[in-house]
Design a protein that fits this description.
CATH architecture: 3-Layer(aba) Sandwich
Number of strands: 8
Largest sheet: 8 strands, mixed
Shape: globular
CATH superfamily: P-loop containing nucleotide triphosphate hydrolases
Distance between the termini: 35 Å
Strand order of the largest sheet: 3-4-2-5-1-6-7-8
Strand content: 15-25%
Radius of gyration: 18 Å
CATH topology: Rossmann fold
CATH class: Alpha Beta
Length: about 300
């Protein structure tokens, strides 16, 4: 096992080339808040800043990031774990600097991987052609454990909500459950589909006040994405709004968010490298009791 861990570290260092990695998981309390569209557009914005971005997508075909870009995800990370396909055939490349890793099947089986399968996974990730600067995780709300393990071990967990009352209520419920069961005490809030910045701030202030008053968690404001017809039009064409309508208010909001994200890790003082992230992910996945968070 000691040799296995050394092999893990060596392979994962090759992934990053010794640089720091940012891992940001995007979660939501309910569907319909635009989480996946936000992740896809943010990935494009970060890639345009010169970052090498990998989106890990926990959603099945038909509701996935690949489909957003007009691509078809033929394989899954699980095919790599089972040594059926190399990682190079699973990762999709919608544009320079941006990779999409379909992982809907693998994410649901992380807790049941054998030691050999864990080794295969880590060696495959360590063998990526280019060092990765940022990993964005589009987490499914249908995960068997109730929340993706990525959201528990990522440096940052962003809760996406909209101005809809039900979305706000479900977002707070998710934060409360994760805080209580897994001692996650810090989240960022991204308010999507809002008509005005003042509305977004008001929504954030209210939920942050309740969370702090009840000792649930500390919430930080990630930003707001305006309700913008350009996003819908771009999605219909299988394009990012930054490409389709670069002057649109939503495109500007994604550029601002991408710029801010680069400083989140430093502001939190978290410098856990990729070795820590991947090993903790596998370790935690083995220990979570299925459906515990739904209790």
């Amino acid at each position: 096992m000691a040799d296995f861990r050394l092999d893990q570290a060596a392979g994962l260092r090759r992934l990053l080339g010794g640089s720091s990695l940012q891992v940001v998981t995007f979660v939501a309390g309910c569907e319909g808040v635009g989480r996946s569209v936000a992740v896809a557009n943010l990935g494009v914005a970060l890639a345009r800043l010169g970052k090498e971005v990998l989106i890990i997508d926990e959603h099945h075909t038909g509701d996935d990031i690949a489909g957003f870009f007009g691509l078809s995800a033929r394989f899954d990370l699980l095919n790599v774990v089972q040594q059926e396909k190399p990682l190079s055939q699973v990762v999709l490349r919608p544009m320079h600097g941006l990779g999409v890793l379909p992982a809907a099947h693998a994410a649901r089986k992380l807790g049941r991987l054998s030691v050999q399968q864990q080794k295969v996974l880590l060696e495959a990730i360590g063998g990526l052609e280019k060092p990765v600067d940022v990993i964005l995780v589009d987490a499914s709300i249908q995960h068997p454990q109730g929340i993706s393990p990525f959201g528990l071990v990522s440096q940052e967990t962003v809760v996406v909500l909209s101005s809809n009352g039900a979305a706000i209520t479900e977002a707070y419920a998710l934060i409360k459950k994760v805080s209580k069961l897994f001692a996650r005490r810090h989240f960022r809030i991204l308010v999507n589909k809002v008509r005005a910045q003042d509305d977004a701030r008001s929504i954030f202030d209210n939920i942050a006040h309740v969370a702090a008053q009840r000792g649930v968690a500390t919430l930080d404001y990630a930003g707001a994405i305006p309700l913008d017809e350009a996003i819908r039009q771009a999605a219909q064409l299988g394009r990012s709004v930054l490409t389709h309508a670069p002057e649109a208010p939503s495109a500007a909001a994604f550029r601002d968010l991408a710029s801010d994200i680069q400083y989140w890790q430093q502001s939190q003082g978290e410098q856990g490298g990729v070795e820590y992230f991947m090993q903790q992910l596998l370790h935690l996945s083995q220990r979570i009791t299925p459906n515990a968070i739904r209790a």
